[in-house]
Amino acid sequence: MSTITLRASKGSPLTNTEVDTNFSNLNNDKYESGNNVSVGTLTASGNVTFGIAATVSAAGSTQGTATALTKTYNIVSTASANQGVVLPSAAAGLVINLYNVSGNTIKVYPASTETIDGGSANAPIEVVTANGAELVGVSTGGWRQVGSGGSNIASLTVNDSAELLGSLKYGVTASVSTAGSAQGDATALTETINVIGTVGGSAQGVVLPTAAAGLHVVVANITTTDCKLYPASSDTIESGSANAAVTLPAKTTITLTCQDATNWVKHRGLAVYNSSGSLLN
Question: b/e per residue, 129-162, with b = 16+ CB within 10 A?
Fold first, then answer.
C-alpha cells in the first residue's frame, strides 16, 4: 500500500515536496499491464482467462530437442511418435495443464535436472493421444501429476469396462538370478514380467508373490538349465500341496493367474498328456 501524507492527519497544508512524494508513491505502487501480481485471496465475479498455447507442435526425441511449454494451458495438436515437450522450471505452486490431441503418444520432460513424480532427473512421462495431464510444482525442481497417474497411484480398480488408447506397459525385471534350494531362500519375484537370466543349478528357484485373486505373473526362463518355481508361503500352484514347487524348464515361459487368495493356475497354449491321460505340462 502506498504511503500518502494527508492534510487532515498533518493538520496543515502539504508542501510541494509532500504532494510530489504522494504522486510518486502512488505511481510506484500501481499495477500496470504485464506486471506480475502477488495477492492473498483472489475473488473473481466474472471469468478468469489463463494463458493458452492452442497449437503446440511437439518436437525432437530428447529433452534438449523437445518443444518448450510457455503457457498455463497447452494443446499439443501436432506430434510424431516419441516427440515431446518440456515443462518450464518448476516452482512451488506453478500449474501447467497439457492436452494431447495429436494422434500420437508424446513425452513430457521436466526442465534440465528436474523431476516428475519423484522419478529420475530429466526423465519424461508419456501422455497418450486424446488425454491430458495437470502438473503442479511442489518445490524448486520438482513436479507432481494431479490425479492422473505416475507414481501417485498405488493401485487402480476398474468396476466396468475400460478402453486402452495406447500401449500397456507392465513392470518387468529383465535379469533375475535364481537362488537357494528351498522356498525360503529362493529369489522373490516382484514384477508382472520376470525374465530369469541366471540359474546356478536345477535345485535353485524363484518365488511367486503372495497370491491375490486376479493377480497375473509371467516368468520366462531363458537359460539352458531347469529351475524351481515356488508359490509364496501357504499358497499353491495348480491346487497342489501348499508351498510345493513346480519345475520351470529351460527355454520356457510360464504365465500364471490367481484364481483366489491362495492358488495359482497356469495358462496353457497347448495341454500335453501322456498315453495314460496324465497332464505333462
Answer: eebbbebebbeebbbbbeeeebeeeeeeeeeeee
What is the structure's pLDDT at 155? 64
Query: All 3 cell numbers of residue 281?
Result: 505340462
Q: What percent of the chain has pLDDT over 90?
A: 69
Confidence of residue 150 (pLDDT cuts 50, 70, 90): very low
User: What is the C-alpha separation between 64 and 107, in angstroms, rounded?
Assistant: 12
Residues 6+ apart with CB under 8 A from 32: none
pTM over 0.85: no
- Domain architecture of the chain: domains with CATH: 1-29 (no CATH), 52-149 (2.60.120), 172-266 (2.60.120)
Instruction: Name the β-bridge partners of 145.
Output: 135
What the block records as the C-alpha cell of 186 is 529362493
Which of 222, 223, 212, 189 is closest to 264 using CA atoms? 212
* CA pair distance 23, 19, nearest whole angstrom: 7
pLDDT band at residue 22 under the 50/70/90 scheme: confident
Alpha carbons 103 and 10: distance in angstroms, whole number: 69
**CA distance to 37, 74, 95, 139, 237, per residue, from 136 (Å):** 19, 14, 5, 9, 45
The arithmetic mean of pLDDT across residues 166-179, rounded, is: 89
